[in-house]
Amino acid sequence: MTFRLRTIDYTADGRKIVREKNIAKPRLAIGRAAENDIHLADLAVEANHAVISEQPASRVAIEATGTLGFGLDGKTVRQAGVDARTGAELRFGGTRISIGHEPDGAILLTVEVAQEEDGSTDSEKHGLALSAVMPGKRTIAWILAGLILALFLALPVASNLLRSDDPKTSRVIGDGSWTPGPLSLAHHQLEAKCEACHVKPFESVRDETCASCHKSVHDHAPAARLGAARAEPGLGGKFLQGVAHAFGKTGPGACVDCHREHEGMTRMALPEQQFCADCHGTLKDRLTDSKLGDAADFGKLHPEFTPVIMTDPATRASAPISLGANPREHSGLAFPHKLHLDPRGGVAKMAATLAGDKGYGTGGMVCADCHRPTEDGVRFKPITMERDCESCHSLVYDKVGTTFRTLRHGDVDQMVADLTVAGNTTRPLVTGRSRPGEFAADRPYFARFTRPVGGGLVSGALGKDGVCGECHTPALRNGKPAVVPVTLPARYMANGWFDHTAHKQTKCETCHAAPTSVTSTDVLLPKLADCRTCHVGEDASSLLGPLASPSRGKVPSGCAMCHAYHPTGAAPLLSRREKR
Question: Does the domain at residues 3-113 carry the CATH identifier 2.40.160.40?
Answer without folding.
Answer: no
